[in-house]
Amino acid sequence: MNRKSIIWLTVLFLMVTAGCSKQQSARPAQEVVVKAMQVIQQDTPVTYEFVGEIIAKDEVQVKSEVSGNISRKFVNGGDTIRAGQPLFEIDRRKYAAAVADAQAQVAQAQASFSNIQRDVTRYQNLASQGGIAIQILDTTVSQAEQAEALVKAYQAKLEQAQNDLSDTLIVSPVNGRIGVNELSVGGYVQAGSTVLATVSTVDPVQVRFSMSENEYLKFAKMGNSPDAWGQNLKLILSDGSEYPLPGHLEQIDRGMANQTGTLAMKAAFDNPNQLLVPGMFARIMAIGETRQGALLIPQRAVQEMLGKTFVTVAGANKEAVTKPIKLGPKIGNLQVVEEGLTPQDIVVVEGFAKTQPGSPLNITMIGLNDLTIPGTK
Predict the structure, then answer these.
(1) DSSP β-ladder status, 326-331 and 320-324
(2) Does domain 32-44+292-370 have CATH number 3.40.50.920?
(3) What's the count of helices (H) and strands (E) in the chain, helices before strands?
(4) How many CB atoms sit inside 10 A of residue 313's CB?
(5) How confident is the model at residue 373 (pLDDT cuts 50, 70, 90)?
(6) Three-state DSSP class for residue 208
(7) Domains of the chain by residue range
(8) 70-93: pLDDT as tens digits
(9) Which residues does the UniProt record annotate as the domain Multidrug resistance protein MdtA-like C-terminal permuted SH3 (predicted)?
(10) Per residue in 235-245, is it b (16+ CB within 10 Å) or e — as a string?
(11) Alpha-carbon span 368 to 35, nearest angstrom
């Protein structure tokens, strides 16, 4: 092949390559299929959310007033029980014997006191007639007083023995549910120290949660007192469902915890069906101020990167546009947007991960009912 042929082939190759490049560059970019929705603008009550733990309102450790071996057990672990219901019985034989012994001592002391009282009456008659010396009468009166005191002492001993015998039957101090780690028949109980069982009240229950110092200041500066926001609390369970009964704030700690800088609180919820069990985690939702004309978007539309938050919106020509935004509080599965959007914006909810700025969009509009996040109404 001569030199002219080589030059001609090179020129032809460059022309073909350039033509292909022009064809490729002329191809339109492929549309990205996305789901989007119009920014919602409406007056919105702002809700504040706190993570909490369900606890028993009252939790009582059952202990015995007397020592001994457990002779009978009337309940099983986990049973629902009522106040005054028998739980255990301590071996009562020695306590019954102590009552019988105390009764005998009282009877003996009373008999002795009665004899001395008769002597006092007789000596008083003799002394009035000068039949005996006054000193003898005084001595007999003193003996009668000592005998009476002994009767009272033995009566007190009898009362204590009867109380001990009564205390061998251990009853529940409250309505509630008994724990499963209680002692068994034959176990030894030390008075005042051995925990026989723990009984927790079940209705109502409390939810223990904490409010940060900044949250407390926000509520206080807006004039939202606990009497206002703490009277219609909602409880969201771990599966995302809302507990059907409202609660109310019941206790507020006296001050911020030194280590965590939070203010501990307790809210009470009725629990007639015993759905709520101590140890469950839940979220408390409190309604705060109402924001007029708030802008709302689905939480799932929000993107985060390097501490910044932004969303993808549909531009004038249905191309992808990235907008930085400033977020406000969460409202269910929606998010308040304080800066960065207008009511006219259309926000991409699904498919934004496949877009780039300027990407043409094939948009399917959706509404609130199409959101599938748990808790959507």
Answers:
(1) unpaired
(2) no
(3) 5, 22
(4) 25
(5) very low
(6) strand
(7) 32-44+292-370, 49-57+201-291, 65-193
(8) 988 888 877 888 888 998 999 999
(9) 294-352
(10) bbeeeeeebee
(11) 12
Residue 376, strand partner residues: none
**Beta pairing, strands 361-365 & 32-38:** parallel
Q: What is the dihedral of CA 30, 35, 41, 43, to 10 degrees?
A: -160
The torsion defined by the Cα of 101, 106, 111 and 115, in degrees rounded to 10, comes to 140
pTM as predicted: 0.59
Q: How far apart are CA 236 and CA 339, in angstroms?
A: 29
How far lies 67's CA from each of 194, 195, 283, in Å? 9, 12, 44
**In a 10 Å sphere around its CB, with 0-12 CB exposed, 13-18 middle and 19+ buried, how is residue 340 labelled?**
middle
Instruction: Give a three-class secondary structure readout of 251-285.
Output: EECCCCCCCCCEEEEEEEECCCCCCCCCCCEEEEE
Q: For residues 336 and 348, what is the distance between their CA atoms, to the nearest angstrom?
A: 16
Q: What tokens appear for 263 in the block?
A: 């203010």
Give CA–CA dist 248/267, Å, rounded: 5
How many angstroms separate the CA atoms of 137 and 124, rounded? 7
Kindly report the average pLDDT of the chain as a whole number.
82
Q: Which residues contact residue 196 at a Cβ distance below 8 angstroms, ignoring those fewer than 6 apart?
A: 62, 63, 64, 70, 87, 88, 170, 182, 183, 189
Q: Residue 307 is encoded by which pair of tokens?
A: 């501490």
Task: Compute the half-sphere exposure of residue 29: CA atoms within 13 Å on the CB side of its CA.
Answer: 14
H-helix or E-strand containing 297? strand 281-298
Query: Residue 315 class from Cβ within 10 Å (0-12 exposed, 13-18 middle, 19+ buried)?
Result: middle
Identify the CATH assignment for 49-57+201-291 out of 2.40.30.170, 3.30.70.20, 3.40.1080.10, 1.10.645.10. 2.40.30.170
How do 169-171 and 361-365 pair as beta strands? unpaired
